[in-house]
Amino acid sequence: MTKSPSAVSTARSPGRMSRRGGGSGPAPYDFRRPIKLSRDHVRTLQIAFETYARSCGTLLTTRLRVVSNVTLGSIEQQNYDEYVASLANPTVIAMVALDPLPGTVLMEMSSSMVMTAIDHMLGGPGGPQPERPLTEVEMPLLRGLLDRILGELKYGFESLVPIEPKLREIEYNAQFLRAHAPGDAVVVASFDMKIGTEECLASICLPFNTILPVLEKQETVELTPAERMMRESSHRKITAGLSAAPIDVAVRFHPIRMRTDDIVDLRPGDVLPLGHPTSRPLEVTVNETVFAHAVPGNQGARLACLVVPSPKEEGRP
Length: 317
Fold this sequence. Notes:
Blueprint: H1 5-10, H2 39-64, E1 68-79, H3 80-86, E2 92-99, E3 104-109, H4 111-121, H5 138-156, E4 164-171, E5 185-195, E6 198-207, H6 208-217, H7 225-243, E7 250-252, H8 260-264, E8 282-286, E9 289-299, E10 302-308, H9 311-314
Helix pairs in contact: 2-5
């Protein structure tokens, strides 16, 4: 038995949105990530990080005198606690400031890869290395290498924003870091790093609030004449719809304060003094917001009010 064309055309996989109507169900929404990187933002970061990776691979090859390679793996938006949970322990994490941008950037690579790089700088053959804290002799070598690597990061981002990366601290345990709050959004770029025969994963963690304004400045949206006409038509329709929307308007006296027992004892016929000066106009409000003043009156058999200048406007010279 064959399906009719109409039956075939209306079938679609669950969860996929149709161009002509709504989807088959609600899409999940993560309230921890109210703003997400757009495809254009990711592409812009990809170009910057790929430039950095190529130059960083050349730097390592020259500095360590062994064939090295760095390639961009992925760019993801995560929460800071998710990023910290994904890191190994121990590992080498450099805390970096990108002046003049605010926030702290984290540059992470495995401790075994760091020991391999230091072994090459000292004239060794590289290869597998023990995982241990760096000595007083090895720490200056690592800081010097990281300073050179940060210089390549400056080169990779020069098309986006001029930065001056500065190495601040080096940590071995990500759980001890207090660079960001656990729920803060971050952008994580992962790299495949190879030094000689040794391979590892490295990463750079950028605060979302730091990099987003930079990416938004790079956006250049050029509308076609048809798109511009559609946007102007939509603007006119929205303006006309809002202008014709009915709104509840109230005219009120100044409120008074009463005790709870006095309110409970109120009976029909009781008189409440309002205390509103006869020389002061009433307030015209919408949703508890005063936007004009008026004096009471009538128009024929109907109550009405006359809008008058506000007391502040009358007092102006």
